[in-house]
Amino acid sequence: MEQNMNSLIMIFGATGDLAKRKLFPSLYRLFERGRLTNKFAVIGVARRPLSNDEFQQSVKDSVVAALGRDKNIEEFISHFYYQSHDVTDSNSYISLKKFAEQIDYHYSLDGNRIFYLAMAPEFFGTIALHLKSDGLTDVSGYKRLVIEKPFGHDLESAKELNKQIRTAFSEEEIYRIDHYLGKEMVRNIEVIRFANAIFEPLWNNRYISNIQITSSEILGVEERGRYYETSGALRDMVQNHMMQMVALLAMEPPIKLSTNEIRSEKVRVFRSLRAVEGEEVKDYFVRGQYGEGTIEDEQVQAYRNEPMVDKQSTTETFVAGKVMIDNFRWAGVPFYIRTGKRMTEKSTKIVIQFKDIPMNLYYQTEKMLNPNLLVIHIQPEEGITLHLNAKKAGGHLDAQEVKLSFANTGVHAMNTPEGYEKLLFDCMNGDATNFTHWDEVAYSWSFVDKISKFWQKEQASFPNYQSGTMGPNAADELLEKDGFFWWPVTDLEVDICK
Ligand code: NAD
């Protein structure tokens, strides 16, 4: 059910990369689909002095660069305004408040406000405190805070940040972005699980042998060396996106599809995570850092030679791990996760490997039967593939693998909405289901902190994988010692059926 969508969206960091590449194009897509009423306005806030006209031009340029179209763009950009602002100075907020009140009146926005913090995280707390003390949150309508990652860099700093933003906003008013939760196929996980009679009865430790989640990138750290040096793959990818996918795969069916019910089932998964600490970390987690190598016939440099990266850096650009969920449904089933930069392929996939059948009557030529796999393709392809065994055509009773594929991209190619578009729409609509609750953030940090604490003490021998590979050998050994292997990503490509 759609709520009152009228709102004034204030984007802090409106001249930044995120605003230009994601937020403006996503708002435009909502506009062109008729999902924004005429009652919306955006105030872009950033340090640099700009006129409204210049700002509107930059919004237009961003839309055209991202989407290659500009139908009705003049009407769209007429809703955008700009205010030069210093986030540490009260005077800036006082004039922003006056400006916001005028815009609110002009568009009849019912005093509804969304504050989107698309800025460096060190400013999040300061901005939230000022929004309250300088009266910007004093509104007759709703007020919501959208906050980008990273939410702290460990549990302690996350608690501190949470304390600051909670002085100005209640938990229900805080929308913590995890953009993976905006992805079509991540949202599809619960539908695949809970809307299919053939999966849910099998979705447990009696029938599933292991689950593998891989999120690999070809790109290196690019220009983000300064940020990445303070983060690394564990904090940048595992604490949020990878753990969110684990939770969606592992949670119990919610009693209904409400925000609170879904979140509380996810939290129960986080509470069931087997804590891994001290020397045990070596048995469960592997870290890596890329050295030089060749990607798509091009020689690329080692992480330590990237701009703004320490020549002796011990920051990990790769993590593989075995996550155990100690509850009735999942006891004994490893959830293997793997993420890294400068790998062979850009791809996010989930492989659910079912247990072998009790007795195998059919051998494929020279090899055992393949286990059944359900592959969920998150990106760049979107779809699902079910790997089955069927009779090979011809006289013998040999079995061969067949794949049943559904590719979202083939059917709805132009219509798959961008993640940020859905998240912005959800926020305007008051639906926080696909944003992370504080409890999820806290449990996830406490899991990850134990790993990083151990890694801080132990010397890393980096670099330990070549660019253009699937990570260090130890990541393969992690599965081999359990009798498994990573399913090769190239064998899992979805056949696009146009
Ligand atoms: P950016 O450096 O490109 O932009 C920063 C913005 O903050 C600019 O508009 C700048 O004017 C403004 N700013 C900086 N100091 C200011 C001050 N004192 N007062 C007022 N404005 C000030 O950053 P970005 O890449 O757009 O990232 C923004 C946030 O989004 C970060 O939290 C980042 O981690 C997160 N994020 C970014 C991406 C991405 O694709 N860029 C993806 C995921 C999350």
Automatic annotation (TrEMBL):
One of its GO terms (cellular component) is cytosol. Pathway: Carbohydrate degradation; pentose phosphate pathway; D-ribulose 5-phosphate from D-glucose 6-phosphate (oxidative stage): step 1/3. The active site is at residue 241. Residues 10-188 form the Glucose-6-phosphate dehydrogenase NAD-binding domain. GO terms for molecular function: glucose-6-phosphate dehydrogenase activity; NADP binding. Its EC number is 1.1.1.49. The keyword Hydrolase does not apply. Substrate binds at residues 179, 183, 217, 236, 341, 346. Pfam families: G6PD_C, G6PD_N. It is an enzyme of class 1 (oxidoreductase). Residues 191-487 form the Glucose-6-phosphate dehydrogenase C-terminal domain. NADP(+) binds at residues 13-20, 47, 86-87, 149. It catalyses: D-glucose 6-phosphate + NADP(+) = 6-phospho-D-glucono-1,5-lactone + NADPH + H(+). Keywords: Carbohydrate metabolism, Glucose metabolism, NADP, Oxidoreductase. One of its GO terms (biological process) is pentose-phosphate shunt, oxidative branch. It comes from the Bacteria. InterPro entries: G6P_DH, G6P_DH_AS, G6P_DH_C, G6P_DH_NAD-bd, NAD(P)-bd_dom_sf. Belongs to the glucose-6-phosphate dehydrogenase family. Catalyzes the oxidation of glucose 6-phosphate to 6-phosphogluconolactone. This is Glucose-6-phosphate 1-dehydrogenase. It comes from Neobacillus massiliamazoniensis. The lineage of its organism: Bacteria, Bacillati, Bacillota, Bacilli, Bacillales.
